[in-house]
Amino acid sequence: MGITRLAIMIAATATLALSACSDTESGFGAIDEARMLAADDDPDNWLSQGRTYGEQRFSPLADINADNVGDLSLAYAVEFDTNRGQEATPIVVDGTMYLSTAWSKVMAINAATGEVLWRYDPQVDGSKGAHACCDVVNRGVAVWDGKVFVGTVDGRLVALDAATGDEIWDVVTVNQQQPYTITGAPRVVRGKVIIGNSGAELGVRGYVSAYDADSGDLVWRFYTVPGNPADGPDGAASDAVFEQFAGDTWSGEYWEMGGGGTVWDSIVYDAEFDQLLIGVGNGSPWNYRARSDGEGDNLFLTSILALDPDTGAYKWHYQQNPGETWDYTATQQMTLADLTIDGQPRKVILQAPKNGFFYVIDRADGKLISAEPYTQQNWAERIDLETGRPVEIPAARYADAPYLVTPSGLGAHAWHPMSYSPQTGLVYIPSMQVPSAYADDVNYKRNIGRWNTGVTFLAPPEGLVPGDTPEARRAFITAMTKGRLVAWDPVAQREVWGIDRDWPWNGGTLATGGNLVFQGTPDGVFHAYDARDGKELWSFGQERGIMAGPITYRVDGVQYVAVLAGYGGSMGMASQTDWMRRPPPNGMLLVFRIGGTAKLEPLPPQEPAPYVTSTESFTAQQIAEGQAQYLGYCTICHNGPVNPNLMRSAVAADPAAWQAVVMEGILAQNGMVSFAPWIDATQAEAIRAYVISEAANRREQEQ
Ligand code: CA
Q1: Predicted TM-score (pTM) of this structure
Q2: Quick one: angle between helices 620-629 and 681-702, nearest 10?
Q3: Most CB atoms within 10 A, among 153, 451, 495, 578?
Q4: What is the pLDDT of residues 23-65, one digit of tens each?
Q5: pLDDT, tens digit, for every residue of 435-468?
């Protein structure tokens, strides 16, 4: 992997005061509709999530280019206060950078020097971390009219003064008694702040809301799935379309676990058609049989929805996975582009969603133009271009037998930003190959407040490999698990070049006018490639895994490239490999320029904590019970490098301390809530028995 063990030592850089910017009116966060619509011609700034409304994550800046990128070096770094995952894309407005970090905190930074101008902490209740399926991450802020907007992991939307970081308003956007969270970035359209939410793994009903940027008043809300018909209409913008046809696409008592359909990432304003495009997530529970009696398309799960930005009224939809049953989502980044297809100019949406197909969709009416797999997939033969519906492989629905499905719920592409260069005509996708064995959990019972998938992942199906032991099957799946940076031609629907990664969770990408593609990787390396052929031109190694999307901007004529480093997210919680055995250091903002002189100093070497040892003995029944509970409750958050590895935790050797943490919740403010609502003390002790037994197994395997 070539990891160099480095840590921060930033030379105090001369501070460069921003002249004449003393309050909101005098310039901080000065973005309005006209400026946002003209963002393409303003390459010094990075004004919203994907730089412009079209979210291509392409910057025309070319001062740093394929010829001189070898001279790129660190300008400055800013260390964060936690080693939880960092997923945000920073915003840069007129020399000031605004960024969010884990636990929904916000910072403003002098983008040329790294001087921290202000910090904001929304004081999220730490126990809310238990509702975050995929770490307490935040993917970014929005800036508009002197304000900075952030969604918080406890479901609030907060407006801050861009000059000072002072709170202007703070509204609760979800029912905080339910397991909703917010990790996605807001977008602002015509003075309305658009925000979605997350929680479809635990059981919620998805929706998107628009708030007045000045007052924080709710303007409209659109639910993506129907509610309980017994409760009547919601009084929301979505009522009409559920009454007309979408409500009839559901069966059974789907409302009991909310139905899912959260809008947890992609929200795009399409100015040319004056429509708001939102990407809708998976069903809750995942299993179609358990959710909707296996009947109906279940609109608007896994759909792109076009709404009127002023009223939230429905315009059109395109559904990718009717009757979704794998945790597939259409929440992945939507990129707007003008392409020439079969000689005709087309205004399209480009999307590489979880299900592994690359979709090109007409923005005028939501009609599918083309769809081809950008990675391995085994759930569909093809997508029918006449109907827009997939031609599925029936066994993939795991209704009668387990199925090793690829992509799995982690997706062939998750939230990691992709980029599109109009210069090369290529889309740069951080793709993943993560197969997973799905089986119908016939004993599934609703488990309020915890994971609800209706799927069991315990048994890789037989017949996968010669010899066919459970261990051989698992090893086979592990060997199939990897990542690939894919450079995709969206017109020809084919890969032009690609780079294999031996770990799936590879970082977001940035494409530039200098014919460069930047991408970080979880081993802590930040790479620059030639956008035309994928040749590696430059890299920078340090010890923080990188997942987030990079940006580039210019201040006083100097071009910078910035990225957040800090490993975590769903894979950071749930899985790891040999080189991740110790907890990651705190995350960091890394900013580069040609001729930068900042240095990072090596961190002291740190060995992983020893496996827990104990002379206690447990019954086989206890250990088996503990394993089942561990897989049901613990592995989602404790199997990666970010949270404590229980097999290496001293708490496991101390029965009283274990009960205090697991049952009494003494670490609730870290996100480790009491599990007393779901398990009893005997089951907690059984988990401890399994952890000690498994620690002994792993120690033996490593010797
Ligand atoms: Ca999901």
Answers
A1: 0.93
A2: 100
A3: 153
A4: 445 489 999 999 999 999 999 999 999 999 999 999 999 999 9
A5: 988 999 998 988 887 888 999 876 667 776 666 7
Q: How far is the CA of 201 from the centre of ligand 1 (A)?
A: 6
Is cis: bond before 322, omega within 30 of 0? no
Question: Which residue type sits at 488?
Answer: W
CA–centroid distance, 206 to ligand 1, in Å, is: 11
Determine the Cα–Cα distance for residues 598 and 108; give it in Å rounded to an integer. 20
Question: Kind of pairing, strands 72-79 and 259-260?
Answer: unpaired
Biggest CA pair distance of the chain: 74
In angstroms, the Cα distances linking 274 to 55, 268, 590 are 15, 11, 36
C-alpha of residue 246 to centroid of ligand 1, in Å: 21
Residue pLDDT, tens place only, 560-572 = 999 999 998 888 8
**Pick from 163-172, 231-240, 566-575, 671-680: least confident:** 566-575
Contact 171, 192 (CB under 8 A): no
Calculate how far, in angstroms, residue 205's C-alpha sits from the geometric centre of ligand 1: 12
Residue 354 CA to ligand 1 center (angstroms) comes to 10
Q: pLDDT tens digits for 579-613? A: 777 788 999 999 999 999 999 988 888 788 899 99
Catalytic residue among 94, 161, 297, 327: 327
**What whole-number distance in Å separates Cα of residue 350 and Cα of residue 332?**
10
Position 4, amino acid: T
Active site residue 214: no
